Amino acid sequence: MKKLKIVVLAKQVPDTRNVGKDAMKADGTVNRGALPAIFNPEDMNALEQALQLKDKYPDTEITILTMGPGRAADIIREGLYRGVDNGILLTDRKFAGSDTLATSYALSLAIKKIEPNLIIAGRQAIDGDTAQVGPQVAEKLNIPQITYAESISYQNNNIIVKRRLDNGIETVQSPLPVLITVGSSATICRARNAKLLMKFKHACTQSELQEKSNDYIIQQRPYLKISEWGVDDVDADDKLLGLSGSPTKVKKIENVVFTAKESKIINDNEAEINELIIELIENHTIG
Amino acid sequence: MNNISVFCEIENGIVADVSLELLTKAYHLSEKLNCKLEAIAIGNKLNSIPKQVFPYGVHKLFLVEDRRLEFYQTLPFTHIVAGIFKESKPQIALMGASNVGRDLGPRVSSKLNSGLTADCTELEIGDFYDKKNDKQYNNLLYQIRPAFGGNIIATIINPEHRPQMATVREGVMKKEIINKNNIGEVVNLDSNKYLNNTDFVIEILERHVEERSINIKNSQVIVSGGYGVGSKENFKYLYELASVLGGEVGASRAAVDAGFADHARQVGQTGVTVRPKLYIACGISGQIQHTAGMDQSAMIISINIDKDAPINEIADIVITGDVSSVVPKIIAAYKKNTK
């Protein structure tokens, strides 16, 4: 069978699921700075699918690709700790402000340069929940896509995917190359491997290295260097990036402020609950 | 005048509810814009589609019938929909935020380089003045949706690119017959005009469709659980209460993610939108992505151990206490008073 060369697309996102009380400002809006940056959960599921294919076919090569600011190098390190072969951080100020389409354009150029035959991404990121980047990248690459995947296998040079429908399950088969997006119902990702953690804990990008003094480690161990690609490395057209490359514009952002309404407070005892139920039956809400 | 186009999703010859809801919304938008409403239906055996969609005010229906297209497949559907858009040049194109629409929408938008906004909760028509370029845009589609985990509400516009594309989840818009006697024009299109053989590289090996057994959308009473319910086992209290009240069990995203309940029960922006007579929120903190899917309920009761939970601010009645202690008391009180 053909050797699998996989790109896993992953994004660093603010942890919007855990907006605790300390993350709320006095005016009831979210204090974004208080949210930790995490590996997008469904991208973790995507990574696991790639790692499982590598478990089965050890000559598989996995590259993890992320687009974001310098600190997104964390995503690459998390990949290395779990068994990916290498990672690329796509980073440039010119990418800032990109909507899903401009993001897809940039990612598709980086993927073309890597030349994989299989691309696996999370279905959607928790900061936007759009589920658009996967299909938009596939279209830019002019390859087929399979979304909402639950499990992926490889047989006779074909990729076989079990995927979720709104009301059921479908199994489909595709030749290579293909792009797959993995949903939250897929297997959760394995933990970091202790040996790999030791091996790669000093892995860093050139930009990170400039802030450190231990560059002798990287000189001795070139595998610790994480590649950084900018606009020029992928030959991107500036006009198709950032705000100018984004057909959608944000006209207005409203912070959600929880406005209080008079609610009736009832305590957890039989008498008060009984009284409430009688009232609900009498006004025909229930019964 | 450029029209509004709605992609109609079809399963077993029946147009999906979400598509009929979008047709209703699109008809009202078309009245504001003084343009016509178009619909696209792709599949096999489409003879009953016209009479299903015309009562919703459809002026022109594009039918693409092909036995290879009985089930949705990304590439052929993308090429047909993008091809029709190129010819009919709609100013607005809407589709359901279902697994089909969320597979097709981004693919078509990427092909046409047009903007797409996923999971809108409101669609309105409005103007926009671009200060930077001193340019005025009139009658744009305001695509309104929660973002950032539901902590902000964003209004998105596509000033330059057409069509302005948006997806909307089932249950968000209201389905309403506009005129039961309306008859529009049917345009039959040949699929081969848009397709080539490589569009069928992905083969469907097996397809298993379940009847929708869980139907929380049409339930008058919903007993919904969040992460605060604590465990899958504790959900039994909710099932019991739902059963005595003749309702259904719903769940928040946090509860679904934790494995307490099935995704089909998820209420909120990434789940189902509901408007029951009574919504009982058990151990739900009330992030906006949940409340966006239930705040139109006629009455909301919140059962929460945390008296400051955000959901309590939209609740009519707040019961402060643990779900496993409060819910059995409600069941007992209901049984006692309905004997």
Keywords for this structure?
heterodimer; A: 287 residues; alpha/beta; Rossmann fold; 10-stranded mixed sheet; two-stranded antiparallel ribbon; globular; B: 339 residues; 2 domains; 7-stranded parallel sheet; 5-stranded parallel sheet; 25% helix
* Principal-axis shape of chain A: globular
Mean pLDDT of chain A: 91
Strand order of the largest sheet of chain A: 9-8-7-10-6-1-4-5-12-11
SSE succession of chain A: EEEHEHEHEHEEEEHEHHEEEH
Task: Quote the beta fraction of chain A.
Answer: 25-35%
| Strand content bin of chain B | 25-35%
CATH class of chain A: Alpha Beta
Whole-number radius of gyration of chain A? 23 Å
Put simply, the count of helices of chain A is 8
Q: Which fold does the CATH topology of the largest domain in chain B refer to?
A: Rossmann fold
**Average pLDDT of chain B, to the nearest integer?**
93
Helix content of chain B: 10-25%
Q: Alpha-carbon distance between the termini of chain B?
A: 63 Å
Relevant CATH superfamily of chain A: HUPs
Q: Tally of extended strands of chain B?
A: 18
Largest interface: A-B, 80 and 93 residues
Structure write-up:
The complex is a heterodimer of chains A (about 290) and B (about 350). The model of chain A has no long low-confidence stretch (mean pLDDT about 90). Chain A has eight helices and 14 strands. Chain A has a ten-stranded mixed beta sheet with strand order 9-8-7-10-6-1-4-5-12-11, with helices on both faces. In chain A, strands 2-3 form a two-stranded antiparallel sheet. Chain A is globular and about 75 Å long. Chain A has a single domain (about 5-250), classed as HUPs (Rossmann fold, 3-Layer(aba) Sandwich), CATH 3.40.50.620. Chain A has helices at about 40-55, 75-80, 100-115, 135-140, 195-200, 205-210, 215-220, 270-280, and strands at about 5-10, 10-15, 35-40, 60-65, 85-90, 120, 145-155, 160-165, 170-175, 180, 205, 225-230, 250-255, 265. Chain B is α/β, with parallel strands linked by helices. Chain B has two domains: about 5-200, Rossmann fold (3-Layer(aba) Sandwich), CATH 3.40.50.620; about 220-335, TPP-binding domain (Rossmann fold, 3-Layer(aba) Sandwich). Chain B has eight helices and 18 strands. Chain B has helices at about 15-35, 50-55, 75-90, 100-110, 235-245, 255, 290, 325-335; strands spanning about 5-10, 10, 15, 35-45, 60-65, 90-95, 115-120, 120-130, 135-145, 150-155, 165-170, 185-190, 205-210, 220-225, 250, 280, 300-305, 315-320. A seven-stranded parallel beta sheet of chain B has the order 7-11-6-1-4-5-12, with helices on both faces. Chain B is globular. The chains are: A alpha/beta (about 290), B alpha/beta (about 350). Chains A and B meet through helix 3, helix 4, strand 7, strand 8 and strand 9 of A and helix 3, helix 4, strand 7, strand 9 and strand 10 of B. Strand 9 (about 170-175) of chain A pairs antiparallel with strand 13 (about 205-210) of chain B, so a sheet runs across the interface.
